[in-house]
Amino acid sequence: TTDLATFCTALGDKRLIEFCQACNTRQIIVGASAEDWCLKEIGSSYHREVCTNSATGTGGPGPGGTYLPFTGTYESKGYFSILRGMFPLGNMDREKQINDFLINARTEFLLGNINYWRLRVGTSYEARDANPDGNVLAFAYPGDDLAPEYEAEFSTDGGYCEVLWHRQSDREIHCVDLDTEAQYLANNTRPSEGRNWPLFEQGRFLYYEITAISKDHLGQVVPPVGAPFILSRVQTQARVMQA
Known about the structure:
Layout: H1 2-11, E1 29-32, E2 39-42, E3 48-51, E4 60-61, E5 67-68, E6 74-77, E7 81-86, E8 96-107, E9 115-124, E10 164-167, E11 171-172, H2 181-186, E12 195-203, E13 205-215, E14 221-222, E15 229-240
């Protein structure tokens, strides 16, 4: 066609690298979504941006023959971040007791949302995989129509031979330094608040599960949006029980 011929003439004998001289050289990771058929930049946001009208229209000619692109509408959906594992306490044949759990985390601006850390501590007599069989994420009971969309007790599928979990109180995700440097100096105080959970759990094998959650207006657990944090340390106080 005439347009194609004009396009080819404009390209001439240029090579691909010549079109990239003025490009932004920052490398990004792009993924394709099977939910809305869109390409997304990965790793720069703390939500899932979903195109809600991707299947309802296309671009096309506008007034005067100009091409008008299709305009998408987007919705931000949250997602759960979860850390789950076994305490490496050794002494496999002995009961252990833990009475405190502490995390060190760096939190960033929370985008106006109130989000929480949910901690659960689990026990078992034999060594087990803390992930339920066939349901690694374990956010809901499979096939249970009465369960909420996101079951608050994340890690069980209702079967036998699973870890016995005990849920602790939720902690709000925020920076623990509640004052500015000037306020600390003026009040002759220092940062002293920690992200710790006093607890009392005992067993041969002990497990932990930390999940970032949010809550709706009814207090039901929903995936969080905008809860950026980095966990740098998990600590517990433990002792081996006497035989």
